[in-house]
């Protein structure tokens, strides 16, 4: 590959263990690696890009995504939250959505996700689902860096009457799922010049037995892959784990030997001390002491009136905070902004949760979880995963502190170009690796097919309108 030189007004360069702001800087890429970040470069370059009024940052690392279904959350999951389930959509609406989507719709969601991730700054994504090979193939074609997991569990939840949660257990099925997940990891080794890798994802703390958790952790260590699980994501989950084991989900995972530096806990919102539960204990210390990380997905919960209380408290406790998207929009721009604002709201302080903290969460903190000191930074030897942001747009100007502008004001339209593994995947606003023609129309048709199947999967045979009423009555 040719040597690429980029000159820009600002570069977020990594120096002495932290991000630093380099003004009028240069980044040089040779192959898939950064070979220079600084000023006064005197070496060769085959391509020289004068980016002008631009901010160059590391690519964002999205640590929690469900690319197979997330795009169809839109227009279905909002404004609904049954009080008997403490506002979560996990028990009814999410199960209905997943049951109603067809395989063509899955393929459309995956392809749509490729475009959405690139256009909103994700260069590395951690995906959890049930169709890992198909997602891996799409990520490979799109040029994304990806960690892919096929989820597995010992049981499933459901509601028999719309008022309570019940469980069906199949422990053998959980271990069979683990075997398939391990096979996927082996099959993906070296995929996409090692851009696409596998990892392990037992689904939820309340649907996995201690034995499945222990074996997952053992295999994570043996295979040297990350490990993730949904934990402390719902009030009913905490209550059910307390009833079954006498422990919070975090305590339960710790007792099973699950927690560790390669573990990321999806959500981890309902921990001890939250006003939703008022449970004594010290879940945050347990997470921090284990070296585990959390993936905070602010928008997913904020739309239901739920947020961490408070994210700065997790930071002060020493928890490694990373960010994900989980649902639609699959935008790290939005994830960063909502995490920033809600952290301040919960803490009732403007200065306890800063733009620099959010930049770290989206980059180096996630790289630490992955065990990758070559990601999440711009420095010689790091992978060339770069974002080029325009600073001359209405949203980004005027500029005094470009990191504050990025966190609090940037939009997807301000992201001009994306480089992953040294290759342009988006340039001057055009995605080069995904055929976007007709994608929105295909997603609309997938949604209409899915919505029409809701009565077939609803326990009461309700229509979509009865499950998720429209905002306005029709005009007559």
UniProtKB/TrEMBL annotation:
Database matches in Pfam families: Amidohydro_1
Assigned keywords, A-Z: Hydrolase
**Chain ranges passing through the membrane:** none
Question: What InterPro entries does the entry give?
Answer: Amidohydro-rel, Metal-dep_hydrolase_composite, Metal_Hydrolase, MTA/SAH_deaminase
Q: Which residues form the Amidohydrolase-related domain?
A: 55-425
Answer whether the UniProt record assigns the keyword Hydrolase to this protein. yes
Please indicate if the UniProt record lists tRNA-binding as a keyword: no
List the protein's name: Ethylammeline chlorohydrolase
Source organism per UniProt: Microbispora siamensis
Task: Tell me the lineage of the source organism.
Answer: Bacteria, Bacillati, Actinomycetota, Actinomycetes, Streptosporangiales
